[in-house]
Amino acid sequence: MSRLPEIREQVSLQGLNTMAVPAKARYFADITTADELEAALDWARENGQQTLVLGGGSNLVFAGDFNGLVLHMALRGRTWEQVREDDAVLVLAAGENWHDAVLYAARSGYRGIENLALIPGTAGAAPVQNIGAYGVELCDTLKTVTALDRTTMEVVELPAADCEFAYRDSLFKHQPGRYIILEIRLALSRTEPMKLGYRDLQEYLGSEEADQLTPLAVAEAVMAVRRRKLPDPAVLPNAGSFFKNPVVSQAQFEDIVSRFPDVVSYPVAEGVKLAAAWLIDQAGWKGYRNATVGVHNRQALVLINHSGGSGQDILALAQEVRESVRNRFGVELEQEPGIVGN
Q1: How far apart are CA 48 and CA 28, in angstroms?
Q2: Catalytic residue (one of 168, 185, 226, 322)
Q3: What is the side-by-side strand order in the sheet with 265-268?
Q4: Residues 282, 264 contacting (CB under 8 angstroms)
Q5: 45 in helix, strand or coil?
Q6: Pairing of strands 66-73, 51-54
Q7: Looking at residue 208, what is its pLDDT?
Q8: Is residue 168 annotated as a catalytic residue, yes or no?
Q9: Nearest-angstrom CA–CA distance, 171 and 159
Q10: By CB distance 3.0 to 4.6 Å, which of 20, 32, 43, 199 could disulfide with 237?
Q11: 258 is catalytic
């Protein structure tokens, strides 16, 4: 029989979201096993409560309190499977800290996720967003996702090919609430070439020979580059990149570049990807701040909560930024963090 975890009431969520937004959960449970998860879901169903699965709280904004049961995924564990001479599969429980897992793999000499160092959040949340940085995405190494399918209440194993990964997108976004991720498996290597083509990374590494670099050295370089541009959420509350880089058609790009020749862009299969940070900067927002929230002065993609702002304060600023970019460039920015609460 599944064991019901302790259900607490009126629990503060301010320390459980990287925006440090004040909010409360009507009910709250720490989930440490799959059995506890099933029991908590049964309890929510029997008591007519909606549920929210919460990992590291790094990719959401609480617009208000959550009037239901928060399931805080605290499953722990990391193990190696299928260890061969040059390859191995790293298994991470959903509640494992993602950055710690990256360093663990890098220190073990395995390559594949070192470019994803210092991304906040948990392993279980990583596939939802298909996290990416410096030329690498999670889907590059993801092998399988183990999840509870709430439509059948059965634990399923989804191959990466079935997860519909795209830029900051996945099956788990397309079918929100259906799957609760329990663990992920990553196929890592000791010999695969590391991806060092990102300009900022190249500049930091300088004349270092690629074949002389260890995955830990690359992870440390990524950390240094990120820290130059991005604020530490523990010091200056933020949710990382607040907007996706928009993709526009070739015709729309040609119209934009005719008016703004310096626009930062990258060709992609779907058209042309524009740098959202450049658009926001050119619209005059970089370094902006009001009484409670603002835009980071080194990275315009990052909205910050510098003086105890509410979720509504953050969302109001985000809307102003979106409208400004739309009016100036005719481009619609899509918000990355989800919105939760009343």
Answers
A1: 14
A2: 168
A3: 247-248, 271-274, 265-268
A4: no
A5: helix
A6: parallel
A7: 82
A8: yes
A9: 12
A10: 20
A11: no
Ordered by start, the domain boundaries in the chain are 8-73, 78-229, 238-340
Architecture of domain 78-229: 2-Layer Sandwich (3.30)
For residues 114 and 222, the answer to whether their CB atoms sit within 8 Å is yes
Q: Residue 169: its pLDDT value, please?
A: 93
DSSP H or E stretch at residue 154:
strand 154-159
Q: Which fold has domain 238-340?
A: 3.90.78
Model pLDDT for residues 1-40, shown as the tens digit of each residue? 578 999 999 999 999 999 999 999 999 999 999 999 999 9
CA–CA gap between residue 205 and residue 279 (Å, rounded): 28
pLDDT band at 211; cut points 50, 70, 90: confident
Which backbone phi and psi does 320 adopt, to 5 degrees? Answer: -60, -45
Residue-level pLDDT at 207 = 81
84 carries an active-site annotation: no
Confidence of residue 56 (pLDDT cuts 50, 70, 90): very high
> Distance (Å, rounded) from C-alpha 322 to C-alpha 320?
5
Distance CA 277, CA 80 (A): 38
Residue type, 292: T
Bridge partners, residue 154, by sequence:
149
Which pLDDT does position 1 carry in this prediction? 53
Calpha distance 56→19 (Å, rounded): 11
Which CATH number is associated with domain 8-73? 3.30.43.10
Closest CA to 147 of 73, 79, 68: 73
Each residue of 257-290: pLDDT tens digit? 999 999 999 899 899 999 999 999 999 999 999 9
Are the C-beta atoms of 333 and 319 separated by less than 8 Å? no
Q: How confident is the model at residue 252 (pLDDT cuts 50, 70, 90)?
A: very high
Residue type, 329: F
d(CA 227, CA 219): 12
Catalytic residue among 183, 241, 310, 322: 241
> Which two tokens mark 19?
């925006």
In sequence order, what DSSP letters do the residues of 277-312 get, joined into one string? Answer: HHHHHHTT-TT-B-SSEEE-SS-TTEEEE-S---HH
Within a 10 A sphere around the Cβ of 151, how many other Cβ atoms?
Answer: 9
Q: Name the residue with higher pLDDT: 341 or 150.
A: 150
